[in-house]
Design goal:
Oligomer: single chain
Helix content: over 70%
Number of helices: 5
Strand content: under 5%
Structural class: mainly alpha
Number of strands: 0
Distance between the termini: 52 Å
Order of helices and strands: HHHHH
Largest sheet: none
Length: 130
């Protein structure tokens, strides 16, 4: 049980840190090159096009496991400490203030994915039936 609680705490910290970076990327006190690093990291992480394709054994996933954390670390290094402190405080207060709203948001996201999955299955059913 102790290990599960540590994992939950790490997930909460990661969520807060990610949200703080997002808030910092919108702050006018952050230099353009730090914003560029944040943008590159987000685009690389969520892009379906990888530098090294995922089907290449080991190396395909290695670029994701290296570039994303390095991008986050570099962005944290480039964001001015006072801005990062302010954004961390805002992120912490936002994430602890209204859990029901966060649950509602999560429910909307899950419902959207379920709807898209059901539409894809219906489309596949229609194609394979004929």
């Amino acid at each position: 049980m102790h290990t599960i609680e540590r994992w939950r705490e790490r997930i909460r910290q990661l969520e807060a840190e990610t949200y703080a970076i997002y808030l910092a990327s919108k702050d006018p006190r952050v230099p353009w090159y730090a914003r560029a690093i944040v943008l590159f990291t987000v685009v690389h992480t969520f892009s379906p096009i990888d530098l090294i394709p995922d089907f290449v054994p080991i190396l395909g996933y290695l670029d994701d496991l290296v570039i994303t954390p390095l991008g986050i670390a570099l962005a944290l290094y480039m964001i001015p400490p006072d801005v990062l402190c302010d954004c961390r405080a805002r992120a912490h207060s936002a994430l602890t203030a209204d859990p029901p709203a966060r649950r509602a948001y999560a429910a909307v996201v899950v419902a959207t994915w379920l709807l898209l999955a059901s539409l894809a299955l219906a489309f596949l059913w229609r194609i394979t039936r004929t």
